[in-house]
Amino acid sequence: MPLQIHQFPCREDNYGFLAHDPESGSTACIDTPDADATNAALEEKGWRLTHILNTHHHGDHTGANLPLKEQWGCTIVGAANDAERIPGIDVRVSEGDEYTFGSMTAQVFEVPGHTSGHIAYYFASEGVAFVGDTLFALGCGRLFEGTPAMMWSSLQKLMALPDDTVVYCAHEYTQANAQFALSVEPGNERLVARSKEIDELRARGLPTVPTTIGLERATNPFVRPMSENLQATIGLSGADLVAVFAETRKRKDNF
Ligand code: ZN
Ligand code: FE
Predict the structure, then answer these.
(1) For 227, what's the count of Cα atoms within 13 Å in the CB-facing half-sphere?
(2) For residue 48, how many other CB atoms are within 10 A of its CB?
(3) 163 annotated active-site
(4) 87 with 117: CB under 8 angstroms?
(5) Cα-to-centroid distance, 187 and ligand 2 (Å)
(6) Residue 172: what pLDDT?
(7) What is the model's pTM?
(8) Which of 51, 58, 82, 118 is catalytic?
């Protein structure tokens, strides 16, 4: 039976996610932006929280770890190399590990850059990835604790997944990201079309998350440093891909 995923908005612009394995009855939440919103979602679905899968230590991702653990007695999974910053961590995972909850197995990718200990969870059997603040719809996380080369390598790991992989990112930043993307790759017709669809969705109050690897590959400037139109627009025609990525990220920081 497939993994059932329930997405709910919370805080300013976060998404919370519940992942329910109907075979075992286990339910994981991916990060803990808000205890009340998570509990409301659990109640709405009639699910019991058994696991927390953390992507990184920021407060809008681990802030409700301890109250949810106290309430539910759930198991908290997080990055081994960042364990001291993951409140209540029980299981420490690293690159290449597989973590199984119920009948569902996630592959763990280390994707540093936004933070030094950021990880992503990929459920290959379901074609689903939870990427936290590493890859966004039309964007990527700010480089708080990593170099452009580090983040580019992390993004490439994610972009190696199949095009139809459904990508759950942790924030609704897409409309602002689209404005920036259009400014650096104005000649990308699929980006222009996607930007219109995004405006329509947001005008109706609808989410633009999840996205897919294929859609990001075609339209997200942060994974398209090889684009001649992007390179020309930012004055780096023929430059190496890390340099193009670094300049793109810098321009977004100042956009
Ligand atoms: Zn973050
Ligand atoms: Fe965040």
Answers:
(1) 23
(2) 13
(3) no
(4) no
(5) 30
(6) 98
(7) 0.98
(8) 58
pLDDT in tens, 170-197: 999 999 999 999 999 999 999 999 999 9
The answer to whether 36 is a known catalytic residue is no
Q: How remote is the CA of residue 2 from the centroid of ligand 1, in Å?
A: 28
Q: What is the DSSP letter of 154?
A: H
Q: Which tokens go with 204? A: 């109706």
Domain boundaries, the chain: 4-169, 174-253
Q: Write out the two tokens for 62.
A: 């681990």
In sequence order, what DSSP letters do the residues of 62-116 get, joined into one string?
HTTHHHHHHHH-PEEEEEGGGGGGSTT--EEE-TT-EEEETTEEEEEEE--SSST
**Whole-number pLDDT of residue 251:** 98
Mean pLDDT value across residues 13-42: 98
Q: Angle CA(201)–CA(138)–CA(244) in degrees, nearest 5?
A: 160
252: confidence class by pLDDT, cuts 50, 70, 90: very high
Pick the catalytic residue from 56, 57, 82, 118: 56
Residue 61 designated active-site: yes
- Tell me what pLDDT residue 194 has: 98
Residue 160 tokens read as 């190696």
* CATH number, domain 4-169: 3.60.15.10
51 is catalytic: no
Are 7 and 15 a contacting pair, CB within 8 Å? yes
Question: How far is residue 239's CA from residue 230's CA, in Å, rounded to a whole number?
Answer: 11
Confidence band for 10, pLDDT divided at 50, 70 and 90: very high
Structure tokens at 133: 């603040």
Residue closest to 119 by CA, chosen among 140, 134, 138: 134
